[in-house]
């Protein structure tokens, strides 16, 4: 197989500079993931407050346990199917993929031995794998497991949200036990970010029909088995989830013996557990940073997170069909005040579905600044008028809806409340409610789509392909839960990954962002800065802008 230097250099540039849309940590960085925590904000868009890496003293030591605090519980331990950060935090530790993404947002080989060999036409990608990599049950990971894993995405009965990411993938072939070849139908600029999903064990799952795999509890919930640094031990819903070191992990046994996720009702409860030493690590609420800074046993680290927070409108609900209504809703919400109050200045107002960290970031998009008078004008143009009670009414129907968020997230709760107040000022009745994380995801995702509006966040993946969230084909079974439809966005989304020149592609992506911003299927809230609080005894920590559980096998305790 030939490999042209020019194409390889171009792909290398893409790998170095790409960063944005749909998957989870080391287990598939081509995809966006719902985040269950919004306790973050953003400072300067061009960097971080610090490098996020703790200074270590002495040599790493083996042994000991840590407790990770979280208010969100996982849903499923299989990265081919989950779309939430709580699940990704676990699968990032239990599974391993061909590649991973480092803290500089560069794709790096993991189970793959090196970067792929790419054919001259860019359609064949061949990866050589490390020998001797083991699953937790002792079976070796081979190219046949890789083929098994990625053929699931291609199967007509696949029920997860990632099928569109592999539309250019024609076949996956095991050349031998440790060499796998991916063949594409056309050049795909985003493909380097699509091969990081956790490899599944063929010997355990090959007899499970693909149509049944998402609901196969025996593996996905009760006993997930991967090739990652930690083995699954037990999950007690509402209490904790326990992992233990995998002695035969191919990169070397983790320094820690055990990692426990402890679940709490909300972030305030987690701060109390941090104060008492009952947890060692948590994503810290911006409202509690000043308090946490007084804890002598705790270090704080911050980094601009690769994400944005938003209010999503269900465009299949008649209330939100008219673009003027959605623009009016954004005009009626003082997002800068949300940044300054709820986020305590640790965020930057967002106007488009792309991170300032991305090479494709473009702020030349329509912006709908706080202007309640303009909001009322737009509503009037759309046929809504104040009735005698001061409530917006049209054809005998009052403007009233519910805004949902997930339990335990005080930031989203507060956003729901303040949005309720803003919209009440212009005559719209809003009910702010919260639900348990798993039930919340079930209600807002396909096939249910049962919501008016939601307060959520997308943790963004490496490549800025917007297809998975914004293409109309992703409404029925994908991540386009707002039911957004725009022919131009569909057309340009189909086009963008076929463009290898990064500047040309950025122009096309800029058109997409501008159109989405004009249509306001979301009210884009802010780009957050993430704060992590951890016990000072934890060493070897590196703060990743996308992956919460980044290289935990390199953490160790200095006590």
What does it look like?
By secondary structure, the protein is α+β, with helices and mostly antiparallel strands. Helices cover 26% and strands 21% of the residues. It is built from 16 helices and 24 strands. The protein has helices at residues 5-17, 85-94, 143-154, 202-205, 210-213, 217-222, 267-276, 289-292, 323-331, 335-340, 372-381, 410-425, 437-444, 467-470, 487-496, 502-519, and strands at residues 33-34, 65-70, 99-101, 107-109, 117-118, 124-128, 169-176, 179-184, 230-236, 240-245, 258-263, 281-283, 298-304, 307-313, 347-349, 385-386, 392-394, 397-398, 400-406, 429-435, 453-459, 522-535, 538-539, 556-557. The strands form six sheets. Strands 1, 12, 13, 14, 15, 19, 20, 21 and 22 form a nine-stranded mixed sheet that branches. It has a four-stranded mixed sheet with strand order 2-11-10-9. α9 (323-331) runs antiparallel to α11 and α15 (487-496) packs antiparallel against α16. Mean pLDDT is 90; it is low at 1-29 and 38-56.
């Amino acid at each position: 197989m030939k490999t042209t230097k020019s194409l390889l250099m171009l792909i290398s540039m893409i790998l170095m500079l790409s960063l944005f849309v749909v998957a989870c940590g080391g287990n598939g960085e081509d995809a966006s993931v719902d985040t269950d925590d919004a306790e973050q904000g953003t400072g300067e868009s061009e960097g971080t407050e610090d490098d996020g890496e703790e200074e270590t003293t002495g040599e790493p030591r083996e042994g000991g346990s840590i407790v990770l605090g979280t208010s969100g519980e996982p849903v499923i331990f299989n990265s081919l199917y989950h779309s939430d950060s709580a699940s990704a935090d676990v699968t990032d530790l239990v599974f391993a993929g061909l590649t991973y993404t480092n803290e500089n947002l560069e794709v790096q080989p993991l189970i793959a031995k090196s970067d792929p060999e790419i054919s001259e036409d860019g359609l064949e990608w061949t990866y050589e794998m490390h020998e001797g990599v083991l699953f937790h049950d002792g079976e070796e990971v081979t190219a046949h497991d890789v083929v098994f894993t990625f053929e699931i995405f291609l199967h007509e009965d696949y029920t997860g949200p990632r099928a569109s990411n592999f539309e250019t993938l024609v076949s996956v072939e095991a050349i031998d036990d440790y060499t796998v070849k991916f063949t594409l139908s056309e050049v795909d600029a985003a493909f380097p970010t699509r091969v990081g999903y956790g490899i599944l064990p063929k010997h355990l799952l090959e007899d499970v029909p693909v149509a049944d795999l998402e609901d196969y509890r025996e593996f996905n919930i009760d006993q997930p088995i991967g090739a990652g640094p930690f083995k699954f031990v037990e999950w007690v819903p509402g209490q904790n989830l326990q992992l233990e070191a995998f002695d035969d992990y191919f990169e070397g046994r983790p320094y820690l013996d055990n990692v426990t996720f402890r679940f709490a009702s909300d972030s305030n409860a987690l701060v109390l557990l941090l104060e008492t030493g009952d947890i060692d690590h948590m994503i810290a609420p911006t409202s509690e940073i000043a308090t946490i800074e007084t804890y002598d046993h705790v270090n704080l680290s911050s980094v601009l997170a690769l994400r944005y927070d938003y209010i999503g409108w269900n465009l299949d609900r008649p209330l939100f069909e008219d673009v003027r209504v959605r623009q009016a809703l954004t005009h009626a919400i003082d997002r800068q005040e949300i940044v300054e109050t709820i986020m305590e200045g640790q965020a930057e107002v967002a106007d488009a579905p792309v991170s300032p960290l991305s090479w494709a970031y473009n702020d030349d998009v329509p912006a709908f600044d706080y202007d309640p008078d303009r909001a009322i004008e737009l509503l009037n143009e759309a046929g809504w008028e104040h009735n005698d009670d001061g409530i917006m009414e049209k054809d005998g129907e009052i403007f009233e809806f519910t805004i949902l968020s997930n339990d335990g997230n005080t930031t989203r709760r507060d956003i729901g409340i303040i949005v309720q107040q803003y919209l009440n000022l212009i005559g719209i009745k809003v009910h702010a409610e919260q639900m348990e994380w798993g039930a919340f995801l079930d209600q807002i995702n396909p096939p249910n789509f049962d919501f008016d509006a939601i307060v959520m966040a997308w943790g963004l993946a490496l490549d800025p392909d917007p297809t998975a969230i914004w293409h109309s084909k992703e409404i029925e079974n994908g991540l386009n839960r707002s039911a957004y439809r725009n022919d131009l966005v569909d057309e340009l989304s189909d086009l963008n990954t076929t463009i290898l020149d990064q500047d040309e592609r950025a122009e096309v992506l800029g058109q997409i962002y501008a159109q989405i911003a004009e249509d306001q299927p979301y009210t884009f809230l802010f780009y957050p800065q993430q704060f992590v609080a951890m016990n000072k005894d934890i060493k070897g920590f590196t703060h990743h802008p996308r992956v919460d559980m980044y290289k935990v096998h390199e953490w160790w305790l200095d006590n």
